[in-house]
Amino acid sequence: MPGTWTTFRELLLPEVAAADRRRRGRALEDALRTAIRQGRLPQHTRLPSSRDLAGQLGLARGTVTTVYAQLVAEGYLTARHGSGTAVAAVAVAEDVAPVSGTATTRWRYDLRPGLPALNAFPRAEWLRAVRAGLGALTDEQLGYPDPAGLPALRSALAAYLARVRAVTTDAERIVITHGVAQAESLLADVLVARGHREIAVEDPHHPGTAELLAAHGLRPVPIPVDDDGIVVDRLAATGCRAVLVTPAHQFPLGVVLAPHRRRALLAWAADRDAVVIEDDYDAEHRYDRPAVRTVQTLDPESVAYVGSVSKVLSPALRLGWLVAPHHLLSSIVDRKRLTDLGNSPMTQAAFAHLLDTGGYDRHLRRTRVLYRQRRDALLAALAAELPRWQPVGVAAGLHVVVRLPEGTEDADVSERLAAQGVHALPLSGYATTSAPFPGLVLGYAALTPARLVEAVHEMAKYSSI
Predict the structure, then answer these.
(1) Which of 241, 293, 300, 378 is the one with CA 20 to 30 A from 97?
(2) Which of 342, 330, 320, 334 is CA-nearest to residue 143?
(3) What SMART domains does the record tag this protein with (predicted)?
(4) Is residue 132 part of a domain?
(5) Residues spanned by the domain of 192
(6) What is the pLDDT of residues 20-40, one digit of tens each?
(7) Same domain for 220 and 328?
(8) Is the pTM of this model over 0.85?
(9) 3-state DSSP assignment of residue 99
């Protein structure tokens, strides 16, 4: 990288040379971090090798290697074997003001919920699974796929879901989908074809889900959520014969559907001949105790169970599943066939291999530790700098809701933080009627502990609470 020698010398050498000889490693670390945060080193900029930069600055190579490793750990740099070291995409100039609501927004600290640590994706293991899965496919399986899904994956999923989530199923009841969004779209289309015109949803809930259901012909009817989950008595007072719930870890409040509410929900379904759609979106991420079993296992003929790899591996895979009651199964498979002719057998075969060889379990074990550390770092920073902001919900998932002091306008807080480059969404934005309290919905999985601590420090400076 000879062309960058002058650039990096001019950028870094003054601060490094001015430091005491014993502190030059720390000075280099500080100079690189500042240059990245201020945008003087843009995203994806390739850095010199440790040997080259050490030569430029008159440092030991081991010093530069240690600095690079520290900034990789903090999320400022990325390092891949054979590709060198580069500025990470999450590091954004401090003086770039974000434009709220636009696709080009560049956030200094993006605390959106729902994203896993994308840099933790098991690339090497996935590549091995792709090769192994492709090798296992027959020539015939490279043609148009079974719309219900690759038999090998459906079998592997049936075993996995039974073992990990106590789902009552076999391979024949599983339909492979392009994520939970398609699973819910298929269910909505089938329900509309059978005369449904509305569907109950938890309130608060993900607005994208309500938008999807409405686009497929079902009017969302909001049902309040309290500390025990969805209020089934309010559900029973509607004319709905379908409901979408997140019982293991309600989104966004993080509460668990209580046992008496589970029984009441299934009694309502039996009385109305209704369908319960159980979105088990992040139940595999539980940090203080095992997750509760699915509602589906109590009544497989009333509950349609949906899940995906989006919160465990990556949303980019567009891979999910639907465990259907028998009376809906054939209609769902027909709808899937008419929609897209089925998912790619090659992606399905790779995921089946990952399940069969334990790779998926190993990745989950790694990310549970990672996300627990990040959640703990976020909560510790909040307790130290914003003690009036109280966490709500169980220790699970990829986000936490913090309750703001009564009388606070959470949308105003969110806007003030956005002006400083902190993307922290207000709880009121997830409510159809009114949020149960003012709060912020903070995703922590995609940021390192150091970055989360920095984010809370910025929030404490600008929140005015």
Answers:
(1) 378
(2) 342
(3) HTH_GNTR (SM00345)
(4) no
(5) 144-357
(6) 666 778 888 888 888 887 777
(7) yes
(8) no
(9) coil
